[in-house]
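Database export, one record per block. Field names are fixed; values are copied verbatim from the stored entry.
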Amino acid sequence: MAKRLLLVAHAPSANTVALRDALLAGARHPEIGGVAVDLLTPFAAGPDEVLAADAVLLATPENFGYMSGALKDFFDRVYYPCLERSAGLPYALCVRAGNDGSGAVRSVERIVGGLGWRRVQPPLVCSGPMQPGFLAQGEQLGMTLAAGLEAGLY
């Protein structure tokens, strides 16, 4: 049975869509056959999707030094239903930041820490003007997370 990777991505701009697509391409790399990837917006994902996942990849723009309101809404809806049922869930984070992204990373880490999720990759923060290297880094993050999940590393 394939493991499930849930990609929850808020992509309100062309740059964040490109980064989301790079994360998805990496997670769905053709050499990774044992992982099914579900892509949902933060508004479409809920507790059932989180609880069905074997790992979660979160993607958000930095808004006012914080995660996007859409991702915060996702956490508001899943927090209590998942609180004691998703501890240890492996996750990774990607932030598209106009500034340094540290506030967005901290805000996500505070919530996932409360949920007891386990970070399995360092946060990818793509800050400043959009660069082609961001897409390669996003693809690598998606691929690494999915390959690790397939290999049973988490």
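Remark 1: Residues 109 and 119 are 9 Å apart (CA to CA).
Remark 2: The beta strands are 3-9, 35-40, 55-61, 90-97, 118-119, 124-127.
End of record.
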